[in-house]
Amino acid sequence: MIPGRGEGGEDVPQGTVVAVQANFYQVRLLGGGESVLCTRRSRLKKLGQKVMVGDRVMVEEIDEVDRRGAIAEILPRQTLLERPPVANAEQILLVFSLAEPPLDPWQLSRFLIKAELTELSPCLCLNKLDLVSPSEQAAWQERLQQWGYNPLLISVEQRKGLDRVLGQLAGKITVIAGPSGVGKSSLINQLIPDATLRVGEVSGKLQRGRHTTRHVELFELPMGGLLADSPGFNKPDLDCDPTELVYAFPEAREALGQGACQFSDCLHRDEPNCQVRGDWERYDHYLKFLEEAIARQELRQQRPDEEEALKLKIKGSGERVYEPRLESKKYRRRSRRSRHQALQDLVEEVQSEELES
Ligand SMILES: Nc1nc2c(ncn2[C@@H]2O[C@H](COP(=O)(O)OP(=O)(O)OP(=O)(O)O)[C@@H](O)[C@H]2O)c(=O)[nH]1
Ligand SMILES: [Zn+2]
């Protein structure tokens, strides 16, 4: 096979979009080599087809000298993640730490549920094993097995367990997520020592900073595969259909696999003959997250236009309050685009406040 050509040796080379910078796309051609800086053919523009990081594309008009080309076609996507915007990712690598910051079961649960609600599969990594005793490590391992997960315990600092992480990532597109300070950047730096593999570096005033959901940084792994780092996934709100939430808990999936609830629309709270309600650790998490999903759904139904401008507070008692936000200066910007971004920022603020409360 000619490098960069399709399986059948056809004329149009294929590649993977590894970075998006304004209207330019960096494409890594199949078969390797330096990436090609591409524009998008106007036909795609007219069709309104957006090119995303992770997209498999057909590239035309390749200029071998200048490494330029044009994206002619986007191949069908296997998966699509909206925040962060990544196509064809297979899994979400959730990184948490066993200490500093301490492992908070509610926060971990929330991230796991958010990951389960995507079409990607979650892979859980617990860092900083050097900071806790072997018995504490074992206790977490056992607890999380009850939740339906098999976490990789690692220490980035002591380089323990990293081969297993690499094995898990090889040849796949992975989105990395997790709370602040758990060691995500340290892990990326260990896995990808060669800084030149940092393909998604962004510059220019059109680009927003690292801490926005718009920005996706993609790293190429030494043994093949891509790792997408973006804070976009890091404030997980649970805005799913309330009846879907239960399927995000492996424990509940197992229970439902053994038999159905009496009512097909059972929310697994106080309905009779419920298969899910019972003596499992995260049942409390389920109830709390269900409240949140219901609150969000009500908000969507009652005030579809205002949802993003309202602040949803769920009090400790479970009481839900919608507070109108004061008009912030972000709203006064002119263009639709920046207004949309302002709303996104606002939603993120709301979500982070909720997480903190
Ligand atoms: N003890 C110990 N410390 C670690 C380990 N891995 C990372 N750290 C430290 O944890 C701190 C946070 O690491 P970062 O890699 O910046 O964490 P992050 O998840 O990227 O944080 P954000 O950028 O805020 O999202 C740093 O001081 C690291 O040196 C580890 O395995 N053991
Ligand atoms: Zn039920």
Automatic annotation (TrEMBL):
PROSITE patterns: ENGC_GTPASE (PS50936), G_CP (PS51721)
Binding site for Zn(2+): 261, 266, 268, 274
EC class: hydrolase
SUPFAM superfamilies linked: Nucleic acid-binding proteins, P-loop containing nucleoside triphosphate hydrolases
Annotated localization: Cytoplasm
Keywords assigned by UniProt, alphabetized: Cytoplasm, GTP-binding, Hydrolase, Metal-binding, Nucleotide-binding, Ribosome biogenesis, RNA-binding, rRNA-binding, Zinc
Cofactor(s) this protein requires: Zn(2+)
Primary location group: cytoplasm
Note on how the cofactor is bound: Binds 1 zinc ion per subunit.
The protein's Enzyme Commission number: 3.6.1.-
HAMAP family (UniProt xref): GTPase_RsgA (MF_01820)
Entry similarity comment: Belongs to the TRAFAC class YlqF/YawG GTPase family. RsgA subfamily.
Main function: One of several proteins that assist in the late maturation steps of the functional core of the 30S ribosomal subunit. Helps release RbfA from mature subunits. May play a role in the assembly of ribosomal proteins into the subunit. Circularly permuted GTPase that catalyzes slow GTP hydrolysis, GTPase activity is stimulated by the 30S ribosomal subunit.
Assembly information from the UniProt record: Monomer. Associates with 30S ribosomal subunit, binds 16S rRNA.
Protein name: Small ribosomal subunit biogenesis GTPase RsgA
Gene: rsgA
